[in-house]
Amino acid sequence: MTHSPRNPMTPWRATCIRLLSMSLLSVSLLCALLLCARSVYAADSWDGSVTVSSDYLVRGISRTDDHAALQFDFHYANTSGLIAGLFASNSQTYPGASQDVELSPFVGFAWTVSDDWRTRVLGAHYSYPWNRAGSHYDYDEVDLEAEYRGWLNAGFTYSPNTPYLTRNAYQLRSAASESAEIALQHRLVGKLTGNAGLGYAYLAGPNAVGYGYWSIGLNYDLRPFTLAATYVGTTSQPEVLFYGTSGGGRWTGTVIWRF
Fold this sequence. Notes:
Blueprint: H1 11-35, E1 38-39, E2 45-53, E3 57-58, E4 61-62, E5 69-77, E6 82-91, E7 100-112, E8 117-126, E9 139-148, E10 152-165, E11 172-189, E12 192-203, E13 209-222, E14 225-234, H2 238-241, E15 249-258
Antiparallel strand pairs: 1-7, 2-5, 2-15, 3-4, 5-6, 6-7, 7-8, 8-9, 9-10, 10-11, 11-12, 12-13, 13-14, 14-15
């Protein structure tokens, strides 16, 4: 593709146009869905969960340096569709770093478009109060999800200030990011469910790069507990923007207690 020398399409400008286009598309889709909104919840409720996992993975990247994670989620939902709560997990941003805690208050709205579709939008702030870099690791995120009949889930995430740790000298940077993913689940037999997911994440900035990630696994329902075994993989690109062991492929085992 040839660009006019009078109006060159620089990488920075192309990235800005791409992010703006994706953001406008997401806002347009959200507005259309809200026009058909009906509340998901029949009554006000307080719910939560406690999770123990062999690793804490977000879009294929470990946030505990391949170590176990203990996580808590507590949230409120009402009949108008409002959701608000707090998520907490231990974290370790890179090899050799001290253990930290990730705190994420969130607020959003959930609704049904039809009997088949359920959707929600969430805004969250992620903070790491005991990290040596302080607020430089903090970031914000908006997440839009749609679920079809409980077996198909699609999501889009945008953040204006995602932090990343460069592989050379562990330099901390931040940039706008976006990701899209799709997940499938199907009951295999009895209480055993199979699931698979595929996603793509893009990080803007001077070292702009995108990478793919995927997962496949099994869940066993022992309500109020859920047992899960999942294999998560990524392409090699995350190693350019994160410490070398952050990406790749790995198995995780998880136990969730919902209350």
